[in-house]
Amino acid sequence: MVTIQLDALGARYGKSLRLRDVTTPAFEGGDIVAVIGPNAAGKSTLFRRISGLLHGPGQVHVDGASRGRNAICYMPQDTSANAVLTVYESALLARKQGMGWSVGDDDLACIDETLAALGIADIAFRNVGELSGGQRQLASLAQTLVREPEILLMDEPTSALDLSRQVEVLGLMRELARARGMVVLIALHDLNHALRFSDQAMVIADGRLVACGPSPDIITSDLLRDIYHVDARVE
Length: 235
Hints:
Blueprint: E1 3-7, E2 9-13, E3 16-22, E4 27-28, E5 32-36, H1 43-50, E6 59-63, E7 72-75, H2 87-95, H3 105-117, H4 133-145, E8 151-155, H5 163-180, E9 183-187, H6 191-197, E10 200-205, E11 208-214, H7 215-218, H8 221-226
Parallel strand pairs: 5-9, 5-10, 7-8, 8-9
Antiparallel strand pairs: 1-4, 1-6, 2-3, 10-11
Helix pairs in contact: 2-3, 2-4
């Protein structure tokens, strides 16, 4: 089973340390981990550090992955697919990244199944540049999922979707995490979604990890008051 654990992780932009001392228990395959916190708290920076796009102190420990560090896929909040490619072509290009260009039946089946699961099979042959913001976000998610990651980092993957589609996509991610044994770290602003769909929660504030554990234990009225400065009850 794949696991990922962060040990005193930090991240630098130039000489400035923007993320520091993030240490977690080992998250195991099948876990959905909600990464929550205010705007500009450091959630995107954390994902960029884990994926190797930023440098800094500390270690990312990945065990049990068949592809080592290549097992990690990062879906940023702002994606940039080639606008002249179709949804299907962009998914195929992502699927074959680092694998050579011979296309087999298994590649085509994976793409077909992924597009169907995301409810976008009907736009498979439309150019990405013609799509709405929500459709582009689903196409980007398809590009990530067809790579069959073992550890998936998702930065606000449902921000452009309406409520029903958000629920569908997050439910699908929960099913896939368990079926494939993936660890999914997902940045969310909606704490109701975090409570409903995640097993664990990490709270990032001011570039530091301030809480980590089972979601019902972490997402509480105290969290709303102390981190979000909102006086409300979590039922």
